[in-house]
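CORE FACILITY INTAKE
Project code: CF-77B
Contact: R.S. (postdoc)
Sample description: multi-component assembly, two entities in total
Requested service: structural model of the whole complex
Turnaround: standard
Below are the sequence entries exactly as provided by the requester. Do not edit them.
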Amino acid sequence: MAEQYEVRPIPSYTDKDTWARVMPDGTVRFGITDYAQQMLGELMFVELPEVGDSVQQGVSFASAESSKAVSEVIAPLSGDIVAVNDALMDEPDLANRDPYDMGWFVAINPSNLSAEKANLLDASGYKALLAQKA
Amino acid sequence: MKQYDLIVIGGGPGGYVAAIRGAQCGMKTALVERDKLGGTCLNRGCIPTKTLLHAAEAYAGCAHFETLGLSAGNVSYDIEKVHARKAEVSETLRNGVAGLLKSNGVDILSGTAALTAPDTVTVGDTRYTAKHILIATGSVPARPPIPGLDLPGVVTSDDILEGPAQDYRSLVIIGGGVIGVEMASVYAGFGCKVTVIEALDRLLPPMDREFGQSLQMLLKKRGVDVFCSARVEKIEQTPSGPCCYFTHKDTRKTAEAQGILVAIGRRPNTEGLFPPGTEPDMERGFIQVNERYESSIPGVYAVGDVIGGIQLAHKAEAEGMAAVAYMCGKAPETDPRLVPSCIYTSPEIAQVGITSDDAKQDGRAVKTAKYLMSGNGKSIIDLQERGFIKVVVDTETDKLLGVQMMCGRATDLVSEFTGAILNGVTHTQLLRGMRPHPSFCEGISEALEAVDGMSIHSAPAKRALPQLQSTL
């Protein structure tokens, strides 16, 4: 049943349906997974932090609003926000159409990457989690 | 020489309201106006803008006819007639103001007033003395030091609202504040290609962040180009019209249009009022007043845009009435210090009191709640875009501190809160009276319930866990 939800190999995942990907410049991008965007439905609005704000692993850093619900979005890692996705603020449904790429939420400078990575799931770990949910 | 108890200088909302209140309190009153009664509000501000917005919305609303099961062919507009209607509304209200002043026995003096002595107002060749003088001379559009501002096709709100009708097919608006976004809504509604350029990081910079973000989303959806954190370098003339050169995110850009509207703010107007060397204490052109609206010249009061603060007609009116109350040794009934802000976009926007960001900055403990109007029946019936109502409540006392709304009739709904905040009402007290169904104001009940997590007509929000659960 989990096949209907796309899980990409490169990012790491949280059990709260968010992903983290280390970019070539060393910053880390966050976003929501395909499963999350399917569960939420079409996004109408996203509330993002501002550049300079700090985020903490496991703590909500943004909210995603669909016609069904408002969901808190959980940070996969700790760090400081260096960029927010302006395109997503203008078109929240980017996260529905392209959750792993164009629909990214924020980028951070990670503060504790090596230690915190241990708390994340890899693609197969997340797939297994989805198999239990479905 | 004619002697008055009160001479009001300026016939806009601050002035004419104060003059009528003065007459009601038994003061022999005169009002001096150098241009048209009603001031900026009636003639080149609130009233003409909202009249144009009404027409633009009605026109744009035809696009939804099919959804409602209606059809209409050949819907069009005649810009001359649209502007004629705008002029008619202004004239009706102007005549109303003149009628009210006359029926209250206020003498209307036409001309430019000069304060030739602390108790003397000179209009033309005639001198009038007064026990109290109230200055309500308002503001004028600010013209920033941008090269090319004097080129043809570059206009201010004065030109658009009081000048000849222009059917712009393309328009650049410099300034993403209230005036800029309302004008963007008007012209986009008439199918004009609009570009908004704002220097700060969002539209409506002094207001709650969510308004600017939501409005940007909406305007872009309606075909408006919006550039925030953008700085205008210059305006140059091209064969097809003026062209605006600006920088956005370190990239140089241009925007060419038939017209460029400069809407970056308004500066205080005291032109011709004070002979040189006789000015009261001023700051950046604003007349400084104490808590009784008295300037540094005893007996000379000032209210409205000319003293600074938020530039809104109802603020000027409340201050005008308060100043007259103080002149009569009374306490004002309406508190001029808590001013609701209203923006007549679609959906409407309104805010009064503090936002949760304000509270965070002040280190104040507050509870906030947001109700999404997607669950509100009236909003669905009315084909409203995404809307919300947010309330801010003091954590300790439960007293209401602020509300921010973007929804149908927000400009009316906000008034449930202004008085409530001033009267120290708690969110549960404001819930006491039920609100009718179906109505926009039901959203207020839901937002108030949501403070304690008890909103009925919304999906329960997913709560975040403070600790990340360990992996499998």
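Facility notes:
- The domain at 10-111 of chain A is CATH 2.40.50.100 (OB fold (Dihydrolipoamide Acetyltransferase, E2P)).
- Chain A has one domain: 10-111.
Invoice: internal transfer
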